[in-house]
Specification:
mainly alpha; ABC transporter involved in vitamin B12 uptake, BtuC; 15 helices; 2 strands
Length: 344
């Protein structure tokens, strides 16, 4: 039997699965360890003592490396990975499908198409500050179109997924057309962004993404219990007092925003929103906050380690983190597809 404890404060009570929370703590510690390794390793390896001195004396040689170079990449990778993982967890809860993610629902493709269009036609006049706005707008536009096309006296998870796959294909075609018709310099920078990279991170981007993530995390708190009920049958959920269609819209919108802000500042990293929730469900089988935290920690760890591999494995080349995320995610995705096929 799973070990659990119940916390009671007056009329409020909450039961905690200790096994899941211990594993969630382990995932968070692993995330911290991955971040520490990313700060220590690089073209100039640092010792743990030098890392501590870098925080004490940020103006020193080690301080510049840690605070201004590696630290920014680690923070941006952490925020992007955690946001994509939480987005994928929410999509899989709402859609009741193990293959649901920002990629399969067209959110990533919509953000990518809008961002590439901005890079090709508007960035020269408006600057790069508008790129995050374009990516977020593209993500929200696509999910709104998917919802509208899937609506017929309400929506079902199956219709949403099918419409999302169709919109992803359409946006992919639009992205390819824009790249083919764009100048070579724009195409090269666009390909790096499409792969997903935290190269060139700065404090402005990190602060902006952190504020967006904090706001969306606060919005998720009151909706978390509805996300836990989302996998139930619509009639059963309605019998428990859940306004099914309203909650589905809110949770889908929140998941799309989480994916949109991550893609806006980190690029279109594929498979993070698919891999991390699945790994979290294996580590923390009891659904709840522990599983959500585990998913966020695993997503952050995946992106941080991918970025570390990208800048150290083929030095002096600095490869985009998305290459290594995709290298891990592709066989994982194929494994899921095979398991789904065997169940049919």
């Amino acid at each position: 039997m799973p070990e659990s404890r119940t916390l009671r404060l007056g009329r409020w009570s909450r039961q905690f699965d200790l096994y899941s929370w211990r594993n969630a703590l382990g995932a968070v510690l692993a995330c911290g360890l991955a971040g520490g390794c990313a700060l220590l390793l690089g073209a100039v390896p640092l010792s743990p003592l030098a890392l501590l001195q870098a925080f004490v004396q940020p103006d020193g040689h080690a301080g510049v490396i840690v605070v201004q170079l590696r630290g920014l990449r680690v923070l941006l990778a952490l925020l992007c990975g955690a946001s994509l993982a939480v987005s994928g967890w929410l999509f899989q809860q709402v859609m009741r499908n193990a293959l649901a993610s920002p990629d399969t629902l067209g959110v990533t493709a919509g953000a990518s198409a809008a961002a590439i269009a901005y890079l090709s036609y508007l960035a020269a006049d408006w600057g790069m500050a508008g790129l995050p706005i374009a990516a977020i707008t593209g993500a929200l536009t696509v999910i709104a179109v998917v919802y509208r096309l899937a609506w017929h006296a309400g929506t079902t998870p199956l219709r949403l997924i099918l419409m999302g796959i169709g919109m992803a294909a359409l946006c992919g075609a639009a992205t390819t057309f824009i790249l083919v018709s764009s100048p070579l310099t724009t195409t090269l920078s666009a390909y790096v962004w499409l792969t997903g990279s935290v190269y060139g991170a700065n404090w402005v981007e990190v602060r902006q993404l952190a504020l967006c993530c904090a706001g969306l995390a606060l919005a998720l708190v009151p909706l978390l219990r509805h996300a836990l009920l989302a996998p139930l049958d619509d009639a059963l959920a309605a019998g428990l007092g859940v306004r099914v269609q309203r909650m589905r819209v809110l949770l889908t919108l929140l998941a799309s925003l989480l994916a949109g802000v991550a893609i806006a500042w980190g690029g279109a990293m594929a498979f993070v929103g698919l891999i991390a929730p699945h790994m979290a469900r294996r580590i923390t089988p009891a659904p709840g906050a522990a599983q959500l935290i585990t998913s966020a920690a695993l997503g952050a760890t995946l992106v941080m380690l991918s970025d570390l591999l990208g800048r150290t494995l083929f030095a002096p080349l600095d490869l985009p983190a998305g290459i290594f995320v995709a290298a891990i995610g592709t066989p994982f995705f194929l494994t899921l597809l095979l398991r789904q096929a065997r169940q049919l």
